[in-house]
Amino acid sequence: MTNSGKLIRRKAPLIVFEGADGSGKTTQSELLNQYFSKNKIPFSYISFPRYEDSIWAQMVKRYLMGEFGGVDEVDSYFGSMLYAGDRLSARDEIRGWLAEGKIVIANRYTPSNMAHMGAKLKSQSEKSKYIKWLEELEYGENKIPREDLVLFLHVPVEVSKKLMGGRSVDIHEKNIRYLEKVVVQYVRLAKERENWETIECIRDGKIIEESEIGEMVLEVLRKRKII
């Protein structure tokens, strides 16, 4: 429902890029933006967290900078509320784009929390309970659009760390052990969920060229009959 109470009808898919930090999500999102623009395919793009547009995202930044404690000190449910608030504040805009028939490309979305916050939990039963709660919160209570396709860019942590280079790191990026757990969680989710596709970005121990990964993304979209 919109603020006016009118039902918005979904007409186009929501595509989400996911992967560990430094896996190339922003690069591949931009390449897909360029492809859609060149081929005159109606689309809109959004990237989370929206630090410049959302008070919730400003709190996310404080979390990532360690103001509320280290990775293992901040509760998964608490941390997720900050990210969920950011997505909720963008809900009506995203739903409007979809209703207009625009494909929406999102750089990170709810699956980011499934992987990152889920990785903090020890047992699989705890992880499953958390994900069930998160989906009820975001898709049920907050009524954000559910993603139609998740493109998981699979890059080992040791490679993604090199790709990040000397950029400033947050409490997630500086914790290698935690990032390894995040990748494991992503891999598990990708195997369990039909709307996920894994893009293997490594060949013979080296990162594949950006343009070739981009072609792999397009091939998935063709297979899924999105383009």
Automatic annotation (TrEMBL):
EC number: 2.7.4.9
GO cellular-component term (any): cytosol
Residues in coiled coil: none
GO MF entries: ATP binding; dTMP kinase activity
Residue intervals of the Thymidylate kinase-like domain: 17-200
Role of this protein: Phosphorylation of dTMP to form dTDP in both de novo and salvage pathways of dTTP synthesis.
Family classification: Belongs to the thymidylate kinase family.
Protein name per Swiss-Prot or TrEMBL: Thymidylate kinase
Species this chain originates from: Candidatus Curtissbacteria bacterium RIFCSPHIGHO2_01_FULL_41_11
Gene: tmk
